[in-house]
Amino acid sequence: MEPATAVDEPHDVRMRGFARRTTVAAAWEWIDGHARRIESERIPLERAGGRVLATDVTSSVDVPGFDRSMMDGYALLADQTQGASHYNRMELQIVGESLPGRPFGGTVGRGQSVRIMTGAPVPAGADAVLPAERVDASGSLLCVLDEVPRGKNIGLRGEDIVAGTRVLAAGRVLRPQDLGVLASIGTVNVEVSRQPRVRIVITGNELLPAGSAPQPSKIIDANGPMLAALVARDGGVAINPGIVPDEPAAILAAMREDADIVLVSGGSSVGQEDYAPSLLAKHGELAIHGVAMRPSSPAGMGRLGDKLVFLLPGNPVSCLCAYDFFAGRALRLLGGRKKAWPYPVRQISLSRKLVSTVGRLDYARVKIVEGRVEPISISGASILSSTTRADGFVIVPADSEGYPEGTMVDVFLYDS
């Protein structure tokens, strides 16, 4: 194995700062070019909810597979009811019954009817169902009290799905009702995109594991639980065995573990102990390091072997922002999902001006107060509670100085 040295001079920005910063658009272009959809797998239908369909599904059967009654009543020939009323009763013989799962085995002839329940197969010969409240039945004698047109109250074979029809398209995130449709056409197993495996590498000698009691000069890890939840939201499987020491060998070993994506939280900037960028540059490819945005400017990305690696800042808001802008996009693409943010968008007017700096994109947390947008903060990358107080965020593009009061802005809502 190569020695886990941390410094590779051409790429080492520790204690130097960034010579230049990549635009968000260029970072997205790199992600879209490298985040290729991973292979599919077959899983049982009952486990397919929320998964991404990998192939089109075409039905080989009609649904329903038979003509069925839509009412409780009597199956008969419609023309034998013409002219029937309370004052002109027409008599038919009841020759049997058709129940769900227990159809009538004969054929309905002239002068005959069959008692039928909702969902039961319509017997041969019958072409309409007369509801039970429009007849007077006694024993085997049926008195018809109303007319019924041909085809009335019958659900036809293939009325829901016709054999040969594409039922669901590849790329669909399967909903509960989709599983019902798949079950109705006899599906046992479903071909879905495999869930990407995401190794979360949390570094920092000052960190305590989530769930620890606070201690002086120590910080409890907030990014690990947050990233694991974000990974699950975007269809991945999070792997987070614990905090990794700020040591080059330990960080490199964690980055090399089996996964589709590696998220390194902390150690991604220009500090003396920020080893991850130079490790990635030496042992893989550091494609981007430093992005023209606030927060999350120290974010980076590249490849190590066949896996994508994202360098996320340790400050919690920056970590959240960098995940949402970059790592989450890649994860969704790998798993066959849409690359766009999974946040609903509303256009709402600003209650006061939102100031930004030309040359960098700003991620501004906002609240909705009395139907208007109120900015909370653009700065404060370590104040994670600003995101819990926020209803969503507004993106100010790099070519803008911000927006004046009253401007209609797109608000990406954290909650649906």
Question: Which structural class do the helices and strands define?
Answer: alpha/beta
- What count of domains describes the coordinates? 4
**Counted beta strands:** 29
Can you summarize the main beta sheet?
Answer: 7 strands, mixed
Radius of gyration (Å): 32 Å
CA-CA gap between termini: 47 Å
Q: Please report the number of helical segments.
A: 7
CATH architecture of the largest domain: 3-Layer(aba) Sandwich
Portion of residues in beta strands equals: 25-35%
Walkthrough of the structure:
- The chain is 17% helix and 30% strand.
- It has 416 residues and is an alpha/beta fold.
- It folds into four domains: 9-39 and 195-334, 3-Layer(aba) Sandwich (Molybdenum Cofactor Biosythetic Enzyme, Chain A), CATH 3.40.980.10; 41-63 and 159-193, Molybdopterin biosynthesis moea protein, domain 2 (Alpha-Beta Complex); 68-155, Molybdopterin biosynthesis moeA protein, domain 3, CATH 2.170.190.11; 345-413, Beta-clip (Beta Barrel).
- Strands 13, 16, 17, 18, 19, 21 and 22 form a seven-stranded mixed β-sheet that branches. It has a six-stranded mixed β-sheet with strand order 7-4-6-5-9-8, with no helix packed on it. Strands 20, 23, 25, 26, 27 and 29 form a six-stranded mixed β-sheet that branches.
- Helix 1 (24-34) packs parallel to helix 6.
- The protein is elongated, with a radius of gyration of 32 Å.
- The relative contact order is 0.14.
- Mean pLDDT is 92; it is low at 1-10.
Features:
Molybdopterin biosynthesis moea protein, domain 2; Molybdenum Cofactor Biosythetic Enzyme, Chain A; 17% helix; 29 strands; Molybdopterin biosynthesis moeA protein, domain 3; 7 helices; 6-stranded mixed beta sheet; alpha/beta
